[in-house]
Amino acid sequence: MASALTDAHGVPLSGTAHGVAAFDQALDRMLRFHPDVLTAADELTTAHPETAMGHALVAYLNLMGTNPADLPGAASAAAALAQHAAHPRELGHVAAVEAWLGGDWITAAEVLDTVLEQWPADLLALAIGHQLDFFLGDAANLRDRVGRTLPALDPGHPHTGFVRGMQAFGLEEAGHYGQAEEAGLAALATNPDDVWAIHAVVHTYEMQGLVDTGTRFLLGRQGDWGADNLFTVHNWWHLALYALEAGRTDRALAVYDAEIHHATSAGVPIEMLDASALLWRLLLDGADTGGRFAPLADAWAPLATADPWYAFNDLHAVMALVGDDRLAEARAVVERLRAWLPSAQGTNALMTARIGLPACAAVVAFAQGRYADVIAELQPIRSMLHLFGGSHAQRDALQRTLVEAALRAQRPALAAALTAERVSRRERSYHNWIQRARALREQGHETEAATAEAQAAEHQRSFAAAFTVP
Ligand SMILES: [Fe+2]
After folding, report:
1. What's the structural domain count of the chain?
2. Cβ–Cβ under 8 Å, residues 273 and 296
3. FRET label pair with 467: which of 13, 60, 254, 437, CA 20 to 30 Å apart?
């Protein structure tokens, strides 16, 4: 059915004028990662059930959390969407939501690209497709999906700034750090509180070892990202990563306790990932994590026993269980995945078979001191970890696990090769140089090891200065 109605970006949709206005408002909240999007979406579907795109928004909000507990909510919204969808754009969203709900994340991402071919200014299709590209580790499309849409947008519309922020993250994950920083800063010139653009810029600094620049950038803009948005925890996690590089474990743990995981945390996977990833880095470094793994493992426990849904989450659940010495439960996750795979279908089955299962098995092996097994699990997959999603920075937890295992397994040649590679890619890194020093010392290269240690200390000093309050 043709429709005379269009949304704020001129894309047709069905419903009523009031419903469309409410959809535009809710979409605006989503692009800002504003918590109000949740109530705005509920009010939209309650007050304007005939506006199909509202149901699409609710379905996606439930799916984006990657939490199996949210799937019934997504299914209800999908049914309402199918009932009310009338325009071909809306039918495209029906297909995307149904594919994702059915476990075919790849098809969902592809369908949204098909929608965008026809209606490149469909910002819901773009924003959700962007998230799917992230979940699928598809760096090229994370960059290019956005590039295909930008010419269709009014350069002066505030939402175009948010799209530039998305482009910044895609450029960063695809390795174009200069362009990414430029796009991210341009996005922030339009919307200083664009937390996704802030995050993209923070990633460019992370990947280049510009920890001091990144720290000052985050601390200087804390009012724009540090509270009251749906992406707060993850940006705090990035600050904690900087703190580790600066030798400020105390600061990283303070951020963890205040912002990343505590008694009143939401307990959602997308935030618990960050908690696991930070504590796991500390565990690898032999740091004292206090009793922090225990409540985190408790928070992960329901997901660790649910039907498999997203392999990236499984890995971080296993990290938390292992960190809390709950080895039997961690092994049970691995065995459950192994038993599930032969009859499993869909995108997560592919992710689990290729990356998730060996990664989980490696973490369990690490906890048991079976370092040769860690190497056997991780070395063959280390160049394709992106297949189970996440960012370069998030997946680095596994690369660090491999380096540490090589050092502990008395495989100094492997450790030296891995650390040489890391230093060549990111010279400005305390962690990379200190691990390189250990590898060189094990090889008997004492002078070179001492030089590497001096390099590590120099970087740490320069980074620590950025944490000093003027
Ligand atoms: Fe990130």
Report:
1. 4
2. no
3. 437
For residues 42 and 119, state if they share a domain: yes
Decide if 312 is inside a domain: yes
Q: For residues 235 and 267, state if they share a domain.
A: no
- pTM for this prediction: 0.97
Q: What is the pLDDT of residue 468?
A: 83
57 Cα: distance to centroid of ligand 1 (angstroms): 23
Tally Cβ neighbours within 10 Å of residue 102: 14
- Ligand 1 centroid from CA 239, angstroms: 10
Provide the residues around ligand 1 (an ion) whose CB is within 5 A.
391
Tokens of 283: 């565990």
CA neighbor of 207 nearest in space, from 168, 257, 250: 168
C-alpha span between 78 and 95 (Å, rounded) = 10
Residue 469: predicted pLDDT = 61
> How many angstroms separate the alpha carbon of residue 296 from the centre of ligand 1?
20
Whether 404 is covered by a domain: the verdict is no
Spell out, as residue ranges, where the chain has pLDDT lower than 70: 1-3, 469-470
Using the mean position of ligand 1's atoms as its centre, give its distance from the Cα of residue 201 in Å: 10
Model confidence over 239-272: pLDDT tens digits?
999 999 999 999 999 999 999 999 999 999 999 9
Give the Cα separation of 3 and 330 in Å (integer): 53
Amino acid present at 294: A
